[in-house]
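Newbie here. two chains, one complex. Structure please?
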Amino acid sequence: MYGLKRVANKIGLYLVLSLFLVFLLFPFYWMAVTSLKIDKELYDLSTNPLFIKQGLTLQHYVYLFKKTSFLTWFKNTFIIAFLVTIITLTVSAPAAYSVTRFKFRGRTTFAIAVFISYLIPPTLLFIPLYKVLKLLRLIDTIWSMVVTYPTFTMPFCTWLLMGYFKTIPRELEESALVDGANRLQVLLRIVCPVALPGLTTVTLFSFTLSWMQFLYPVAFISASTQKPLSVGVVSELVRGDVFYWGSLMAGALLASLPVILVYMIFTRYFISGLTAGATKY
Amino acid sequence: MILPSLIILNLLIIYPLIQAFYLSLTNQRIGVPGAFVGFKNYVELLKQDIFLKTLMNSGLYVSVSLALKTIFGLLLALILNSLPRGRALFRAIVLLPWVVPASMSVLVWQWMFDPTFSVLNWILVHVGLNRINWLGNPFWAKVSVITINVWRGIPFFAIALGAGLVAIPKELYESASIDGAGIWVRFSRITLPLLRPVLGIVVLYSLVMTLADFEIVYILTRGGPMQSTHLLGTLSYQIGLAGTKISLGAAISLFLFPILLFSALFALRIILRYEEL
């Protein structure tokens, strides 16, 4: 009897898990299937839409590259994400290190300000930032994004790194200092290697968060050549009122792919970054 | 060493926030200077149907989404934690909706909710149910928008809460089992109380982010049908930038601020209980 109940429990467990998996993953399947179907089959109400029956096609992908500015958006997105990541790292790492190592006036205030800023969503800032950018004449250029994305990457990354630096024992550095190393040497030779997982996590997050950002470019950009992928795919693959779902899905898939690949290679870091934000205290 | 971060903090976050407050007290439009008008924008907003509707939508959206994300996220976390093997793999797979850019996944959902070619309707019809007018009917449009938010949020909740679950000492469960505690008693007396701090932070964080949501509504419904899905962010964009009434737009998004402060302070309280900054 007891064994039977256990088996039943196990079956129930896997059943619920598969329901979750279907719900969470079906949209990705649907994205891929749609992007590979020929138009005639896409808009044929009499066939089973779940499978591809009338042959695979790459026409929607070819269309993206030949007839739209997809490659320009891709390049823009990459440049923005790359620059923002560099800015974020050079700003966040020293700040987080100082806050966890040195005692100075306003230290706690700074830490609290970083935490509150980490919770401030772009929705609250896009209007005043629009005014600032207008003043700086950066509206409608990719620089508007390079300048404003640190508003969400910097607080998040600083907060995350503070958590990482705190776990590095001070004694490690102090003994090196006693042995005659200077601060910079300590930082490069001792702290950085130990903090490498934290720095990797932060790099990945600022890159992917910049890659995904949507509200800021919607608010700041209208020129097609300056758009990032997120906005380009959403706004320029719909012509008139007609949605071209094949190329839309191909675009969505290609725009997501870099993030998915980075995630697959560095899964561990993404999960640790996610949980550090919510569970490290 | 903290100077660069102070510059960003002050110039790009604190100054714009103050600027937003100031803007909301004027009648500026884009390109037109405008004058100080006190709280007129706020008073006006609270008299407008579209704004009151947006506030109610936001309340509904946030409360239903948060409840569903908490329940299903916790359930998924418990399932993942009790898997005998393959835990890491499933965790990685499950997190995908949270990893993919929101704007791109909203597009797929929009296609799945298509009035004519909705694959969901195809499935409904083939199991003998009626088609649903997903985006054309105020009730179902709300359901659609909430579904996408929950879809994106469940993975985040599951992984974050899962990390909290792992931190609960196994001995507690063992000794409770020996004392004859059933699965429900163990859950309500051990799991829930010990998970509370993590749960608190995840919910508070998600409260702010859900209330501030933009992509889903902007791409899927533009606030429609009949303004039944507008959120603060989309209305603020529509009136403040697209409609050039920038001061009114600033006032709308500032309605986020009290909730933001509330969440930040409570989250800080939880954090400070366990560790100094």
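Moderator note: Chain B has one domain: 42-83+90-272. The radius of gyration of chain B is 22 Å. Thread marked as resolved.
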